[in-house]
Design goal:
Helix content is 0%, strand content 62%.
Length: 189
């Protein structure tokens, strides 16, 4: 008896799945004021990036900190120093997809920095006392939760001979592999 001849039933199961996703690229500008008025910027970099993700409203908030180091010259380019400052941020990442049937009490959120914070531009401010830094960063967030999935169930689950019923098995056992073109197989797997 072919599977198509049997009446299918459906059953709901509860499983953990990705129930929400989002991605956000952002550019922010920070102002750092060194102890001396800078003459020129010799370098700027970001280190010690740490963050965590929390669920918030219609998205996920990434809460983090990083250290900004600015190497600069002062006193008419006669001396150099490094200004260090720790900055904190909160980045709201909206979820572009949310499973409406997930169980809110089982939510777990994660964030991944697909682009670590990176200083792409550093300029001396108009008044000459500070340094303006343009920083780019990008995050990918996911919400994992329990949700219901509907699956097909075969009554009995076995054919008349006591063998498991398999998807696409029409009972003749050949599996319709004769139609496959062996030239399409990838040997480099």
């Amino acid at each position: 008896m072919a599977i198509a001849d049997k009446q299918l039933q459906a059953r709901e199961i509860i499983t953990k799945a990705v129930c929400g996703k989002g991605r956000k690229f952002s550019t922010v500008t920070h102002t750092v004021t060194p102890p001396q008025h800078p003459t020129s910027i010799l370098g700027a970099w970001i280190i010690n990036h740490q963050y965590e993700a929390v669920r918030s409203g219609d998205g996920i908030e990434v809460i983090g900190t990083y250290d900004i180091n600015i190497w600069y010259s002062y006193n008419k380019n006669s001396q150099t120093d490094v200004a260090k400052e720790t900055l904190s941020y909160v980045e709201h990442v909206p979820l572009s997809y949310v499973d409406p049937k997930h169980r809110a009490s089982t939510e777990e959120v994660t964030a991944e920095a697909t682009q670590e914070p990176n200083c792409v531009e550093a300029n001396i401010s108009a008044n000459g006392s500070g340094v303006l830094l343009r920083v780019e960063r990008e995050f990918l967030v996911e919400m994992i939760a329990e949700t219901k999935v509907r699956v097909a169930v075969y009554p009995g689950g076995y054919d008349e001979d006591g063998k498991d019923i398999e998807f696409g098995d029409d009972g003749d056992g050949d599996g319709d592999y004769e139609d496959l073109d062996p030239e399409l197989l990838d040997d480099e797997l």
